[in-house]
Amino acid sequence: MVEFDKFPSYDLLPKEVTQALSFVRKNPEYDGRGTIIAILDTGVDVGAPGLEKTSDGKQKIIEAIDCTGSGDVTLQCVPTDKVKVKDDAISIPGASGKTLLLNKNWANPSNTWKVGIKALYDLYPKSLLTRIKNERKEEFEKMHHQLIIKAENDINSWESNHKNKDNLTEEEIMEKDDLANRLSVLKELFKNFDDPGMILDCVVFNDGNEWKAVIDINGSGDLRDATVLSNYNVKYQYLKFGNDDQLNFSINIYDEGETLSIVTVAGSHGTHVAAIASAYYPDKPEQNGVAPGAQIVTLKIGDTRLGSMETGAGLTRAAICLSQLKCDLANMSYGEGSYKANVGSFCDLLRDKVVNETGTIFVSSAGNNGPALTTSGSPGGTTDGVISVGAYVASGMMEAEYSLLEKVPERPYTWSSRGPTEDGDVGVTVYAPGGAITSVPPYTLASSQLMNGTSMSSPNCCGCLALIVSALKANNIPFTPYRITKAIQRTSKSINNPMNVGLIQVENAFNDLVNFKDDKTQDISFRIEISECNNARGIYIRDIVSANKTTQYTINVKPTFMKTEDKILNQQRLEYESKIALVSTVGWIKCPKYLLLNNGGRSFSVQVNPTSLDSGLHFTEILAYNTESEANPLFKIPVTVIKPENKLDDNTLDFYYNDLKFSSGDIKRIFLNTPKNANVIEVTLKSKNRDTNARFTLHSIQLLKQKCYKAYENEFAFSLNSTSLDDSQEQKFTRCYPVVPNNVIELCLAQFWSSLGDSNISFEVHFHSILVNDSPYGNIILKESEFINDLEISAPLRKEGINISCSLNTLTRNINPSDELITAMKSRDILPDSKQILQLILTYEFKLSDSANVTIRFPSLNNYIYDAAHEGLFMIVYDANKKVISYGDIFAKNIKLSKGEYTVKLQILSKSMELLERIKSLTMIIDQSLPKGKEVNVTFFRDIISALNNKNSGYGSKVLGNNEHRPLFAIPGNGNATHPKEITQNSTLSGELKISSLKLEKPLFRVQYSLGPENKVKEKTLICKDTSSNDEDASNDERNSLKEAIRDLQISYLKKLKGEELTALLAVLEVDYPNHIPLMIEKINILNNKINDLSKSLDKSNDLDKSKEIINEITENCKELIDQTNKLEEVINTKELSSYFGLKHDKIITESEKKLKSDNDKKKEYLLQALTSKCDAYNNMIYVTQLSVVTDENNADELDNLKKYIEESNKAMKDYYAWSEHTDYKYTMIYAKKEKLVGRYGNALKALNKYIFNTPTGDLSKSNISNVNEACKLRLTILEELKWGCWCQYEKLQKIIRSPSDYALLN
Question: Which residues are named in the active-site annotation (predicted)?
């Protein structure tokens, strides 16, 4: 028998390395009991394994709230007269149009029922949506395949009954085509299959005590036995939508039944996070989370509509909930890069309300954007009062979680974000294990999963803190977030971190808190502001000038007290005074020896002299010790100096680093000040003597004021080895990318933590420069008004290879809002200080003439979330049918749109009416790709003469000499470019200007070509004087003009008259103008309207004799209309008209020919209108004759008539087809109706599909939307008559998705 060691289960979710495991073993009742942890994430699945109960038997998840609004359902009251009470049920119309049956025993004293709908797929996480769509498509295909088989059998049967193909009648040919088209339509339908999923009918009512909801999760409409749900926190109820999806959900109802919130998860991330913090497995303690006794509040901030991206609205609502619920701890494993630290609406809420006022210990992930410095994210690494957690990989994790071949040294993960923040704060508070294999939602069809990241280290730390808080509560020891933070920093385990950040230690921290429980200074936070650094929280020297001189800084320190009652708070402030000793641990910093600090705060100076420091990273802290306490330091002032290798005025362009030694997880940082004018860096790495691949990361960052670190970040992951027997042969990795001149760049090279073995790397750095108009990067503006635009390129550093080209392939348009509205939000959006959040809804409209990739931007609002001045931003793009095409947030993204008309609604949330008023005219910017072949290429010339003469285009030599300045003359489109159709006054064309022969990862320059609307030169038509006209003709025209005006006025009044007045005037006009075409058309319209009215009466009639009278009347009117149309065709002379349109006409025409063309165009328009009515009349005759055949036993004559009408209809349709576009809406509908009447459903469906699919949803415009909807409606009736059940159900669901009654909710 094979012997093996016991599986290291406890390392699947590491607790030993933080002392958490030993702490709970020694103190079983301090396992998080009595604590509540809020999880701000994708949502926590309320039915996930390990998250049902706490270790002491309490409900684990006690609140489940969707803060994003992604599960919201707008509700409408059912009119009282629509509520029907039956013997066994209450019947109401659902919002989907379906009749819903409700249980009569449900208490509803007001008898008010509210209904709404939600597309189930809108609630699915992305991965689940993909899985379910694939599974459902397979099931649908089985039903569809049965229809295919039947269609094929019908064709085979017809073939066997018609073996003589040479003598087929026209009717038989049409029958054969119809069967073939049925098969063709089925294949086409499946080709365009896009599963809409289930539409959930929702019913909400008040039972006299609380609001309740019922959701039709099986789609039957019968809700009598359905589970009635309360708000989750009332009974902890949850359901799953189905066995196939395994997605659990709960509900909340807001604002007196106005909004139903269906709470689901947007991904598995939040469940995994919650399980790390506090999962409890009674039979498998090794799988427990860090604090199994803690309870959970799940606050969903990841919006399902955005694929789990957080939104400002979700964050703000989560902060509001934290202030209301007063949780002990909160974990947020989310974050983004920010432009400025410690500012922004959400950060202010966290710092001032959630932490300082409510007292919640807020823990957040530092970010996964390392290994370069200054990559910690917001809010974790950038916000005062928030505990920022980096990710650490412990020895036990390497075997249990990662199955490594051998263990490597414990350390922070390579990708874990590092400090300092842009304002000099440390950026990471503490480290914790950053990986775990634990519970995930059932919809994943897995019980557990490995995830790693600071998203995992943060809940591990939060669980550790829950243990500490549980112990403090059990011992009645008061605590504050500030006290806890100081303790875990003081007692953390050293991991040789260059910024003195350690690994959290639970027992040590708890003992420290017990030891210093009476020291009130531990409950005070100290706000540090450096005057010379824009009130930064630390000193951060990163520029080459400051790194080579002595600088004096003014430090402002002010104590911050926890918010309590004003009386107590003022007394604390009054009594506070600390005698502080300031200590610098390095010789290059001077600071005062002592400081007496009280509530008013103090300022003092420090001097930093980095001139003698070596190049690289230098970090230290000025420590403030309370001379009357041992709980020290009281506060710290971080100081970071980045000293580049090159010196001031050193313009070295090439740097070489040989024999750089790496082992698993090693990081080497090179800091260089980019030379003046340098705008490109070329890096080359080579590996020697490796037989296996080693995974490396090259991470490069430059920092600019008021810019997120991501603005000038480049990161590359790659593998290096050397498999050659010849050591002289080396594998190379080379990249070139833009840099900012005269700015310190960090080149951070790391061997990935799990990449085994030693490596020997050489590293080369080369700087390049090619300037355009003396600019190192940015937009180059060309103006259409100047025709020829002059540029100058130069190479100020070294000889450079050039390869110049530019294709303007993007059209940028500025769109002003068509509507703006400011209103108050509802109860979920009232801030802790009772201020109501307001919303500004801006509406924009735009049109695309071609399909395009489109990016919608709002530059002053994009990319700001944690550091935003407003509380939220959300965007929805709708088509002309109000269907949602795309959702948008702070990050502008590319959307693929078909041609058509679109509406954009932008929601901006703010507590400030002034802010919203200020931006209510905000311009929307649309960048759209030009279709292939319609790009505008820029032509370059060496001199102005060549440009004007369009000769010798080009840019000269492909080598730009050192310090050479070369003029170029650019003409977009070489003067012949055609403007895009969407061009407006402020439009621009843009494209990348490729200039260097180096292969750049990102463009240096973009050309922006400023345009105005195209001035189209009208083509002049030479009008020859018609010599056939004379003075007598002109005189006759004048005499007839009055008579014609009276006639036209009388014809126009026919629309307004009825009964005898109409008959009398029409009779007079027909006598006087028997062949006047507009009069004939008007009579056809009158007859057509009469037939339509009679048809409506027939539909309503229940009397057989009355129906027969109406049928006869319809038939007579149809015959009269057909006769009138035939007469019109004679008057128009269709043969002559056909001959005219069959000829090619010269552009040079006489005035009489011009009039003839106008007359013939008008005749054709009249003819089409008449033929439409004629074919429609035949359809009506066929229909009523079919009714007569059914209702009359002696129907031989009717059958003969029916056959005759069908034959005449076929001929009329051919005539119509000859003049009409076969994809025309009117023709399509009349043809489809006729084919439906005669049972040729395949022909009808083929015509309808051609029209519908040629006008897809994204292609719709407001002018044709009703036509498409009517075509879809007719298609559904045909599918129902064919009994294609699966496609009928599909079409009904698509109708709801395709044609919503109103614009979808924003938030």
Answer: 41 (charge relay system), 269 (charge relay system), 455 (charge relay system)
Cis status of the peptide bond prior to 638, with omega within 30 of 0: no
Cβ pair 609, 620 in contact under 8 A:
no
d(CA 76, CA 81): 14
Say if CB 466 and CB 546 are below 8 A apart. Answer: no
DSSP string computed for 408-473: ---EE-TTS-----TTS-----EEEE-EEEEE--GGGT-SEEEEESHHHHHHHHHHHHHHHHHHHH
Phi and psi torsions of 621, nearest 5°: -140, 140
Instruction: Show Cβ contacts of residue 503 under 8 Å, excluding neighbours closer than 6 positions.
Output: 17, 18, 392, 430, 431, 432, 492, 493, 495
Would you give the DSSP letter of residue 353? Answer: I
Nearest CA to 1235 out of 1170, 1291, 1169, 1179 is that of 1179
By the 8 A CB rule, do 437 and 12 touch?
A: yes
The amino acid sitting at 767 is F
**Where on the phi/psi map is residue 251: left (φ > 0), alpha (ψ -120 to 50), or beta?**
beta
Strand order of the β-sheet with 872-879 is 819-824, 838-848, 900-910, 872-879, 884-888
Given the DSSP bridges, would you call strands 329-332 and 361-365 parallel, antiparallel or unpaired?
parallel
Known active-site residue 41: yes
CA–CA distances in Å: residue 389 to residues 4, 115, 249, 668: 36, 45, 31, 22
Which residue is catalytic, options 96, 122, 268, 269? 269
Give the separation between CA 1159 and CA 350, rounded to whole angstroms: 74
CA distance 253 to 245: 24
**Residues 609-613: contacts with CB within 8 Å, 24+ apart?**
609/550, 610/541, 610/546, 610/547, 610/548, 610/641, 610/643, 611/548, 611/549, 611/550, 612/588, 613/547, 613/588, 613/641, 613/643
Coil vs helix vs strand at 68: coil
DSSP structural state of residue 3:
-
Looking up tokens 């919130």, which residue turns up? Answer: 261
Judge contact between 1281 and 1275, C-beta under 8 A. Answer: no
CB 248 within 8 Å of CB 202: no
CA 750 vs. chain centroid, Å, equals 33
Q: Which of 41, 72, 889, 1259 is catalytic?
A: 41
What crossing angle do the helices spanning 1285-1298 and 1265-1282 adopt, rounded to 10°? 160
Q: Pairing state of beta strands 386-393 and 430-433? A: parallel
Distances from the Cα of 1080 to the Cαs of 687, 1024, 1075, 1076, 1131, in angstroms?
A: 90, 34, 7, 6, 10
Contact between residue 103 and residue 223 where contact means Cβ atoms under 8 Å apart = yes
Mean pLDDT by 10 residues, the chain (1307 residues): 82 95 96 97 97 97 97 95 91 94 95 96 96 95 95 92 83 90 94 93 96 96 96 96 96 96 97 98 95 98 96 96 96 94 94 95 96 95 94 93 91 96 96 96 95 97 98 96 96 95 97 95 94 94 95 96 83 91 95 94 96 96 93 94 92 94 95 96 90 91 93 93 53 92 96 93 95 94 89 95 93 94 95 96 93 94 93 94 93 92 95 96 94 90 91 88 94 78 78 92 92 55 45 61 82 82 84 88 90 89 86 91 91 87 65 83 89 90 84 74 87 85 81 90 92 66 78 93 94 88 79
Residue 300: strand pairing partners: 41, 66
Cβ burial, residue 1200 (10 Å; 0-12/13-18/19+): exposed
Which of 455, 492, 525, 759 is catalytic? The answer is 455
Straight-line distance from the first to the last Cα atom of the chain, in angstroms, rounded to the nearest whole number? 62
Question: Which residues are paired to 697 by β-bridges?
Answer: 717, 750
Is 269 one of the catalytic residues?
yes
How far is the C-alpha of 600 from the C-alpha of 689, rounded, in Å?
63
- Among candidate residues 451, 374, 459, 387, the one with its CA nearest the CA of residue 417: 374
Strand pairing category for 36-41 and 295-300: parallel
